[in-house]
Amino acid sequence: MRRIAVSTSPIHGRGVFALARIAVGDLLIEYQGKIIIAKQAERRVN
Fold this sequence. Notes:
The protein is α+β, with helices and mostly antiparallel strands. The protein has one helix at residues 38-45; strands at 4-7, 15-18. The protein has one domain.
Protein backbone atom coordinates (compact mmCIF):
# COMPACT_ATOMS: atom_id res chain seq x y z
CA MET A 1 0.00 0.00 0.00
CA ARG A 2 1.44 3.37 -1.04
CA ARG A 3 1.40 5.92 1.75
CA ILE A 4 2.55 8.99 -0.19
CA ALA A 5 2.06 10.38 -3.70
CA VAL A 6 3.70 13.11 -5.77
CA SER A 7 1.12 15.44 -7.28
CA THR A 8 0.57 19.04 -8.32
CA SER A 9 0.40 21.57 -5.51
CA PRO A 10 -1.38 24.92 -5.68
CA ILE A 11 1.35 26.38 -3.47
CA HIS A 12 4.63 25.04 -4.89
CA GLY A 13 3.65 23.52 -8.22
CA ARG A 14 4.58 19.99 -7.15
CA GLY A 15 4.46 18.30 -3.77
CA VAL A 16 4.33 15.08 -1.77
CA PHE A 17 1.01 14.22 -0.14
CA ALA A 18 0.03 11.59 2.42
CA LEU A 19 -2.46 8.96 1.25
CA ALA A 20 -2.80 7.47 4.73
CA ARG A 21 -2.28 8.61 8.31
CA ILE A 22 1.39 8.94 9.21
CA ALA A 23 2.37 8.14 12.78
CA VAL A 24 4.80 10.33 14.68
CA GLY A 25 8.33 8.99 14.13
CA ASP A 26 7.60 7.16 10.85
CA LEU A 27 10.31 7.53 8.20
CA LEU A 28 8.88 8.99 4.98
CA ILE A 29 11.95 9.36 2.81
CA GLU A 30 15.68 8.83 3.04
CA TYR A 31 17.86 11.63 1.65
CA GLN A 32 20.77 10.21 -0.34
CA GLY A 33 22.20 13.36 -1.91
CA LYS A 34 25.36 15.22 -0.99
CA ILE A 35 25.05 17.64 1.93
CA ILE A 36 26.48 21.06 1.04
CA ILE A 37 26.82 24.38 2.85
CA ALA A 38 24.67 27.42 2.01
CA LYS A 39 27.44 29.14 -0.01
CA GLN A 40 27.76 26.11 -2.26
CA ALA A 41 23.99 26.02 -2.77
CA GLU A 42 23.96 29.70 -3.73
CA ARG A 43 26.71 29.13 -6.32
CA ARG A 44 24.73 26.25 -7.84
CA VAL A 45 21.56 28.35 -8.13
CA ASN A 46 23.26 31.41 -9.62
